[in-house]
Amino acid sequence: MAKRDLLLSLFFPRFGSSFWTVAEPAIQCAYDVAPGGCLASVYHLTRIQYGIDNPEEVCIKVFVRKDNPRIPSVFWIWRSADFQERESYDMVGISYDNHPRLKRILMPESWVGWPLRKDYITPNFYEIQDAH
């Protein structure tokens, strides 16, 4: 049994490791729970099979403190989480450990702060570069 399958079957014994090999994160999002509170990263996993009318779904929420927002990346299990984890990093500031390309994807690299946090202060001046 692969290390990934062993870990997933330990954490989610109801579904077994075979569930996770065919499941894909349909939606991954991150949000600021409350001002001064914590951040959340949410994964909605759906197992889709041919001939199944009601697919099995699992929602996983990971809460992390704002002072050190780091959680493990699921990129190496589901490569489709690449864009979503990068967007969550860019907008909310959650760092995903072992993500191969964790950098800003929507905002310029020089942008300061995390725009979707509730304590974010909007700058008074925006400089638009390369707006062709």
Automatic annotation (TrEMBL):
Annotated keywords: NAD, Signal, Translocase, Transport
MF terms (GO), sorted A to Z: NADH dehydrogenase (ubiquinone) activity; oxidoreductase activity, acting on NAD(P)H
Domain NADH:ubiquinone oxidoreductase 30kDa subunit intervals: 28-122
Classification via InterPro entries: NADH_quin_OxRdtase_su_C/D-like, NADH_UbQ_OxRdtase_30kDa_su, NADH_UbQ_OxRdtase_CS
Region forming the signal peptide: 1-18
Family statement drawn from the similarity comment of this UniProt entry: Belongs to the complex I 30 kDa subunit family.
Protein name (database record): NADH:ubiquinone oxidoreductase 30kDa subunit domain-containing protein
Provenance organism: Brachypodium distachyon
Lineage: Eukaryota, Viridiplantae, Streptophyta, Embryophyta, Tracheophyta
